[in-house]
From TrEMBL:
The chain holds residues 518 to 808 of 818 of the full protein. It comes from the Bacteria. Residues 24-277 form the EAL domain. This is EAL domain-containing protein.
Length: 291
């Protein structure tokens, strides 16, 4: 920290002069305590199935409720967690938390399935599939309760290593989606080999597709590509009715975005779902992997 002498001669802490790297250092130290201090929280954003207008699944999105800095979004601490290896602990916490939440929702009559985001570093951890299996067993959980979202760039960091971990996860029965699809330079050769069940088109293509014909073409082509490869296709970042209508016309399978709901805390999501125009439907059998 930068200590400045003020007129009375005492050291004064000046946040405006705190350099970015110093901020990062202190953030990292605090992050290590965040789990113990119960400062991490999962928010949940619904996904609507466009064929049935029902909701079966929500995505878990992490927030750090910092006692002094307020709500810190994941983009501001997940990268640190990744570069220090602390992400493994966070990912385990996220999975355990999601499974607990699913059990609570089940007792409330809304057994939603939950997708969790997995980072590049997780994919290089050969222990991940085993840890996963153990967590599922501890929580007496079915693999239908959880699915994984993995960014395209995470997979392409080390495609061969990622492929091994992904194959094992899939053998354990987990469904998997390629997140932020279209932004990560994945080759079609890998796409063909990856054991995924869904493509999630990045919101950068979705938010502008009404005004930008190039984006609309990319979205349409990605939906067709996914379907031709036997995958479900979901669009993220849907913010208005016009985008919704365009995606329905293009045959997109499901959507997610502020137009339906922002990510919400678990109890808020329940209240929202009970009053929402969209009906809850338990994840149907057809979503499940067959082998
Ligand atoms: P993502 O998985 O691609 O999640 C989508 C992001 O877009 C979320 O931001 C979400 O709140 C936001 N979003 C949803 N609908 C809309 C919309 O209609 N318009 C706009 N403009 N934005 C929308 P968030 O929650 O800040 O998360 C950012 C990223 O952080 C996520 O991107 C994901 O990559 C990462 N992340 C979040 N939670 C976790 C986690 O538990 N573990 C890991 N490893 N990464 C996480
Ligand atoms: Mg995601
Ligand atoms: Mg995404
Ligand atoms: Mg993203």
């Amino acid at each position: 920290y930068t200590a400045k002498r003020n007129n009375s001669g005492s050291a004064r802490y000046d946040t405006s002069l705190e350099s970015a790297s110093q901020q990062n250092l202190s953030l990292m130290a605090e992050l290590k305590q965040a789990i113990e201090h119960n400062e991490l929280q999962l928010y949940y954003q619904p996904k609507v199935d466009l064929h049935s207008n029902t909701i079966s699944e929500v995505e878990a999105l992490i927030r750090w409720i910092h006692p002094k800095r307020g709500v810190i979004p994941p983009d501001q601490f997940i990268p640190f967690a990744e570069s220090t290896g602390f992400i493994a602990a966070i990912t385990e916490w996220v999975i355990a938390r999601a499974l607990e939440q699913r059990a609570v929702w089940q007792t409330q009559g809304f057994p939603l399935s939950i997708s969790v985001n997995i980072s590049a570093r997780d994919l290089l951890n050969a222990k991940l599939p085993g840890n996963f299996a153990q967590l599922m067993e501890t929580h007496n959980a079915s693999t239908d309760w959880l699915s994984l979202e993995i960014t395209e760039s995470a997979i392409m960091t080390d495609p061969e290593a990622a492929m091994q971990v992904l194959n094992q996860l899939r053998e354990n029965g987990l469904a998997m989606s390629i997140d932020d699809f279209g932004t990560g330079y994945s080759s079609l050769a890998y796409l063909k080999k990856l054991p995924v069940t869904e493509l999630k088109i990045d919101k950068s293509f979705i938010t502008e597709m009404e005004n930008n014909p190039d984006d609309a073409i990319i979205v349409r082509s990605t939906i067709d590509l996914g379907h031709n490869m036997g995958l479900r296709v979901i669009a993220e970042g849907v913010e208005n009715q016009a985008t919704w209508d365009a995606l329905v016309a293009m045959g997109c399978d499901s959507i997610q975005g502020y137009f339906v709901s922002r990510p919400l805390a678990a109890e808020k999501l329940m209240t929202w779902l009970q009053h929402s125009q969209w009906k809850f439907k338990e994840k149907p059998q057809s979503y499940r992997l067959t082998g």
